[in-house]
Amino acid sequence: MKKQIVTFFLMLLPVVASAETVIIDGICYNLNDENNVAEVTTNSKKYTGELDIPATFTYEGTEYRVTSIGNWAFSQCRGLTSVTIPNSVTSIEACAFYQCFDLTTVNIPNSVTTIGPRAFAYSLKLTDVDIPGSVITIGEGAFEDCISLNNVTIPYGVTSIEGFTFCGCEGLISVTIPNSVTNIGVAAFQYCKGLISVTIPNSVTSIGRVAFEFCQSLTSITIPNSVTSIGELAFYCDNLTKVVSLIEDPFEIIGKEFNRRTFPLHVFNNATLYVPEGTIEKYRKTAGWKDFWHIEEGSHTSLKSIEANSISINGKEGMLTIDGAVEGTPVNVYDTTGRLHASAMTTRQAARIATPLRKGAVAIVKVGDRVEKVVMK
User: Fold this and answer.
1) Rounded Cα distance, 366 and 172, in Å
2) What distance in Å separates the CA atoms of residue 81 and residue 78, rounded to the nearest whole number?
3) Over the stretch 187-225, which tens digit does the pLDDT of each residue have?
4) Interior CA angle at 133 toward 130 and 137, to 5°?
5) How far apart are CA 287 and CA 278, in angstroms?
6) CA 20 to 30 Å from 110, out of 122, 251, 254, 281?
């Protein structure tokens, strides 16, 4: 693996050296005179502070349009705290913000279509990233080990969550995956220890090896009927108590070796597997699934216990108000570090929960399998 990574990095190096390079107002660019476009590139004087990249600039009488953030452009700029990218930029290339340890904010405009491999990897203070709807490609390991990242929405149009994309994002609490995604790659969410909930859409056909391994806060998971392949240790999560499989014709999920099973042994013993009505005997005969001691079937496995459009969640003066949830739905309240502050069950389709979270604090509210981020007023 290390040899592959080194090779990948070396392949990028010649790209930077091949174009004419100029420095304008402290920002270094590679120029393309054929199209009068420019790419932001590395500067021997590391970028620091807050940086606002212009959409255009003039050099020797010619106006250039900035269209990309190049390979390694801001790599290891440890004093860089925020970057505003203009909406002339269409691509953020590989390792562009690699190891920007002090970076907290990046504005990604709606013109960007590509976020390259490891573009933001190891940006340890990056908390929120708004990935615009224009993005259709997110490269391998793009946000790997962004340990402060807590909320991500992947835009519709992205078809694959590549390997290691969010691996090691320990602070990630919720993620929204659109129904354009067909593949969740190897270790895509591995070691996301704070991940409370994830909904896998019915477009996904493949879930890679160790995709959600060691997501220790994950208590339930729903696998849609579209899935035809689940890799070894994909859901090796210690605290799973509820596994909902909507797969009508279960396939074997056992690993090549006994200790490479999809779920931990104690999950087989303690969690409940919910399966579609009329399929329980199939599951009891299929390797990997039949190891669950508790298997139930019925229409409730469609997760219609929560009508997403009818629930409202509001927070004011330490009190959270939940309305419109189905009777008996569990509610848990966390802060942005993943610490549980309060729990309740809805009665008469509502819940009132007192919390220590004050005005301006962000509450992560889990209502059944739905997760919302609420700013306390």
Assistant:
1) 14
2) 8
3) 999 999 999 877 788 999 999 999 999 999 998 898 999
4) 90
5) 18
6) 122
With contact defined as beta carbons under 8 Å apart, do 301 and 349 qualify? Answer: no
Query: DSSP states of 43-87 as a string?
Result: -SS---EEEE--SEEEETTEEEEEEEE-TTTTTT-TTEEEEE--T
Tokens of 287: 């390797």
- pLDDT recorded at residue 364: 86
Which segments of the chain does DSSP mark as H helices, in order? Answer: 2-17, 265-270, 280-284
pLDDT in tens, 316-361: 878 888 877 777 888 888 887 677 888 888 876 678 898 888 887 8
Distances (CA, A) of 9 to 139, 178, 254: 14, 30, 35
Residue 344 host element (H or E): strand 340-345
**H or E element at residue 294:** strand 294-297
Residue 275 pairs in a beta bridge with 297
Q: CA–CA separation, 83 vs 372, rounded Å? A: 27
Residue type, 96: A
Query: How many residues are recorded in the chain?
Result: 377
- Beta partners for residue 84, in sequence order: 52, 107
Q: Is the pLDDT confidence value at 293 over 70?
A: yes
CA distance 263 to 212: 10
User: 95 CB contacts (<8 Å, ≥6 apart)?
Assistant: 9, 12, 71, 72, 75, 116, 117, 118, 119, 121
